[in-house]
Amino acid sequence: MNVDTTSYGRVIGIGSYLPEKTLTNDDMAKIVETSDEWITERTGIKERHISDPDKDTSESMAVEAAKRAVADAGIDPKEIGLVIVASTTPNVLFPVLSASVQAAVDADNAMCFDVNAACPGFVTAFVTAQNYIRSGMVNCALVVGTENLTNYINWEDRGTCILFGDGAGAVVLKAETDIEYTALMRAAGKRGECMHCESYMQKGKEKTEEFLKSNYINMDGQAVFKFAVTEVPRIIEDLLAKTGTSADEIDYFILHQANRRIIESVAKRLKQPIEKFPMNIEKTANTSSASIPILLDEMKKDGRIGEGKKKVVMSSFGAGLLWGAFETEI
Ligand code: UT7
Question: Whole-model pTM?
Answer without folding.
Answer: 0.96
